[in-house]
Here is the input.
Amino acid sequence: MIAPRRRRPVGRLAVGAAIAAVIVLLAMVSLVWTPFPADRMAISVRLQGPSALHWLGTDQFGRDVLSRLMVGARNSIAVGLLAVGIGLAVGTALGTWAAARRGWVDGIVARLADVIFAFPLVVSALLASAILGPGVVNPVLAIGIFNVSVFTRVSRAAAMQVWGLEYTRAALAIGKGPLRVTLDHVLPNIAPVLIVQATASFAIAVLVEAALSYLGLSVRPPAPSWGRMLFDAQTLMALAPTLAIFPGLAIALAVFGLNLLGDGMRDALDPRLADTARREV
Amino acid sequence: MRTLARRIAALLLVPALLAGGAALAQDKKTLTLAVTLEPPHLDPTAGAAAAIDEIVYANVFEGLTRIDETGTVKPQLATKWEVSDDGKTYTFYLRPAAKFHDGKALDAAAVVFSMERAVAADSANAQKGLFEPIEKIEAKDSKTVVFHLKRPEGGFLFNLGWGDMVVVHPDTAATNKQKPVGTGPFKFVSWTTGDRVVLEKADARAQLDRVVFRFISDPQAMVSELQSGGVDAAPNLNAPEAFAQFRKDARFEAIVGTTEGETLLSINNARKPFDNVLVRHALAHAIDRKALVEAAMFSFGTPIGSHFAPHHPAYVDLTGTYPHDTAKAKALLKQAGAENLEVTIKLPPPAYARRGGEVIAAQLAEVGIKANLVPVEWAQWLDQVFKGGDFDLTIVSHTEPLDIGIYGRDKYYFAYNSDAFRALMTELAGTADQARRYDIFRKAQRLLAEDSPAIFLFELAKLGVWKKGVAGLWANSPVQANDVTAAYWK
Here is the structure.
């Protein structure tokens, strides 16, 4: 029997990692240098197309689009890191706790995670922003809480599997407590799943943040964000189409790159997970 | 949330409308207009919202007089009038054929009722000041009404033309908010919340059979609806950036007109450090109006230096009072001891405020003022800023005609308390002679420029776009109205 040919995971991993690295690099560079100050207006050069001076052109206030994209990347990355960080830390703790304790703890944790998971992410983030007011913190919290449920479910399921293996029972038998076993054996074994999930969740967080800032519910102007830039460009499409294209490309590339990275890592870390572990939102 | 829903809807619906919208407005007896805001209700005598008058003024409700496209007072329910020599008695003769849409006759009793209702203790009229000079009203006979004033009031006939002073019938006054019954050429048919108001021809004065006002708050959606034929006209296109493309498009007429909208960077004069005139002057010097109009309004709009419309004969050009001068602004701030100032600017939804706010924040940054922009919805703005006075700075356009008198009001949101200005307004109220009234207007403009209770930015332009073939729509907006009584398809 001939095994079906697998796509080369390394290719996806490399491309994804490269895209993500470029975006992170641009964001980091923007901390110390941007071609122009991101908020500086120059009305006389407004709505210009790409040129040698302004590589990606200027917006309706004559601000440099590349500089704003670079600073906006910081925002997307910060939201992604925080939202995934919250989910990863809290969710993994809850999930592994539930898997270790079973019984009523497991029942409550699993049901709670299911309840949160049942709310569509974009809707709950919108709700949080509408009730608590615009600002960058509320969407991060909303996405973070959703991610808690995602990571609880993922880590619980994976940890359950590990707890069913003989070496964990052996570890218990030689007198290690459940916490010790979780730290020594369970976590290292479920780490690949979590890393893959974190990458996928990061991409989703970037996308949701762009959607919220497009709707005016995330960072406040004049601070740049990709979604906001896209919104501002919307009515200017007839005059300056590049204004919409570049932030749109940035969002698409970031999400595409992170997804490739996640897929590549999944295949590289644990090919068996390839067809099962991804959680779609 | 409504804006939000609109934006989402705009995104989702544009392709559908492009496909299906073209079939909506084909017959030549119907006119479909896009308006930005949905009114809270449809009674112009019970609310300040311009969105009410933008639908019912002249179309559904009529006053004794009206204001026409050029800002001139014209007869409406009163076909003629006489003014006594002392300027205190006005006798109005009502149009004999005038009747309400439910068939009841328009008589002097309805006029007396309307005026008394407007000043009653439980009245929700937004412009009670307009009625203040009236001492008593009597119905001489069924078609003759006499107004006795406390003092001569130069602007009385103009004031009678405001939407707040229209005549309603006692039987229907209470239900006008949802089901307006007036005397105009169009009668109310239906109101679909969130979508449209439909009016129908009520008498032979109307040239169209049907008029539809659709509420489209998203600028991009309004542009798409025009292009797809979903609406025939956008009397106030709220996307100046899209105006140029309509000018080039042979299918449309794109007309730049004037409005009465003085756009201000309003200042809370009661709050430190803005109570210091030096700080206000510094703000005035910090703003580059020309750049602001170009960046925020795509050059549609006229810089102003006081609170007065540039097309009015009594206008004084004071735009040179505080030229853009960052060094001067910094020096004034230093002199006032207000360096490293941090302020918030509350921005209501229109593009002039949201975009203007970004430009102004950048300009203030150049003189060392850090401005935090806080976008707010209209309901919040009315509540927090207009009623609550809780703001440092805000950007808003005052679109009422000849509304310089707001600076003389006791309790108004920018808390400007000037006895000198109030004295001018009192003098104005007692003056009927036009030349002398204009002199007082000029003095008032200069005083405002000097005191700078607000930073006067620019006069809004009216950007009207409609299909070729539509005629009779207003090019200018002397009052907040979309008068379609003279509109027709060529």
Q: What stands out?
A: Residues 10 and 264 of chain A are 6 Å apart (CA to CA).
